[in-house]
Write a structure and sequence with these properties.
The protein is mainly α. Helix 3 packs across helix 4 and helix 9 packs across helix 13. The longest helix has 27 residues.
Length: about 240
């Protein structure tokens, strides 16, 4: 996420190389959003929806407003969803018109383009709030598999900055190690011995911070699914 934010800042400042790199690194994300909306596999160079999504993501780089407290990828995702939805509506109307089934009343249901719609800001706020609630629900369900409640995170988080930073580093390394993370998911237990060897952190420290490490590792590993939660974690300074 740090690299993405750095590239985004450079791209918005006019660095063309940074923009190209950002677009290249985010192609999988763009494809997932478009395919999820279309509910089918899409191929670059063949499906218009991917081209629309890619162009829209590029526009999102310039249109993003950080003061709205919406993470960039979530903002770009909302723009892509809006643009592709508008495209699919137009395609459906065109097909219906060709079939002779579109009447004049239906034609009036056309949604104004994103750029000229005064309802865009309301749409952004409404959809961002809905997505935040969905993330919290999904994350809460994921934590429940480890017998951790969402409310517990406040109580089990280390109060001292240095202690919190150590456990966050452990959780990041756990999330990045595919073998250990798979072991965590399979056993629902923290691999204390292996994690201590990997990080150099004493086993007792890991045991005391077990719930916090697991919760943060789940978040880091699924960060592209929990965009708002990861953004909040970083914005609050707890992700340092």
């Amino acid at each position: 996420m740090e690299d993405l934010e750095h590239l985004l800042a450079l791209a918005r400042a006019g660095d063309g190389t940074a923009r190209e790199k950002l677009l290249a690194e985010c192609r999988p994300f763009i494809a997932r959003v478009a395919a999820g909306l279309c509910r089918r596999h899409l191929e670059w160079g063949f499906d218009d929806e991917l081209s629309i999504a890619f162009i829209t993501f590029n526009e999102a780089i310039d249109r993003y407003e950080e003061n709205r407290k919406v993470p960039f990828l979530a903002f770009a995702r909302l723009m892509i969803k809006s643009r592709i939805t508008d495209y699919l509506r137009k395609e459906a109307r065109a097909s219906a018109h060709m079939a002779g089934s579109l009447n004049s009343e239906q034609e009036d249901l056309s949604v104004p383009p994103l750029e000229s719609s005064l309802a865009w800001q309301d749409y952004l706020a409404r959809e961002a709030a809905r997505e935040r609630e969905e993330e919290i629900r999904d994350y809460t369900r994921m934590l429940a598999e480890f017998e951790i409640s969402f409310s517990e995170l406040v109580r089990c988080a280390p109060k001292h900055h240095d202690a919190r930073r150590v456990l966050l580093d452990v959780s990041r390394r756990l999330a990045a190690d595919s073998s250990l993370f798979q072991q965590l998911m399979k056993t629902k237990k923290l691999p204390l011995k292996e994690l201590s060897l990997l990080t150099g952190v004493h086993r007792k420290t890991l045991e005391r911070g077990r719930k916090y490490i697991i919760a943060m590792a789940l978040l880091w590993h699924h960060c592209h699914e929990f965009l708002y939660l990861c953004y909040y974690l970083k914005a609050s300074g707890k992700g340092d």
